[in-house]
Write a structure and sequence with these properties.
The protein is of the alpha+beta class and 111 residues long. 27% of the residues lie in helices and 36% in strands. The protein has one helix at 2-31; strands at residues 39-47, 51-54, 63-67, 72-79, 83-88, 97-101, 105-107. It has a five-stranded antiparallel sheet with strand order 6-5-4-1-7, with no helix packed on it.
Length: 111
């Protein structure tokens, strides 16, 4: 009976430690998002028309490149459903992170 109790205690301790590691990793990821983000959600999207990838959430920010219609964009968060922050996953600007006007992004359809 003592062996079963020790195994259960060890498993509970491991679960607590692993849970803390996962919680810490999530917090670290959220901490790396821009301060302008107020709605966090990871979604794969397609660009509906040619649009600028910007350094901040607004047209006053510098363009980091053009995303062409059909380019893939992984949205990490957005600002009031007006601007989305994420990473370009296809096209000439693949790998760049920045902001895109929210209304020019469409969810990727999955079958």
């Amino acid at each position: 009976m003592q062996i079963v109790t020790r195994i259960a205690a060890g498993a509970a301790s491991a679960a607590v430690l692993l849970g803390s590691a996962v919680l810490t990793a999530s917090t670290a990821s959220a901490a790396s998002l821009p301060k302008a983000c107020n709605l966090v959600s990871t979604q794969n999207k397609n660009v509906s028309i040619a649009v600028n990838l910007r350094s901040g959430p607004g047209t006053k920010y510098k363009s980091l490149g053009i995303l062409y219609k059909g380019a893939r964009f992984t949205e990490y968060c957005n600002k009031d459903y007006k601007w989305s922050y994420g990473k370009v996953t296809s096209g000439p600007n693949k790998g760049k992170k920045g902001w895109v006007k929210y209304s020019y992004l469409n969810p990727v359809e999955t079958n």
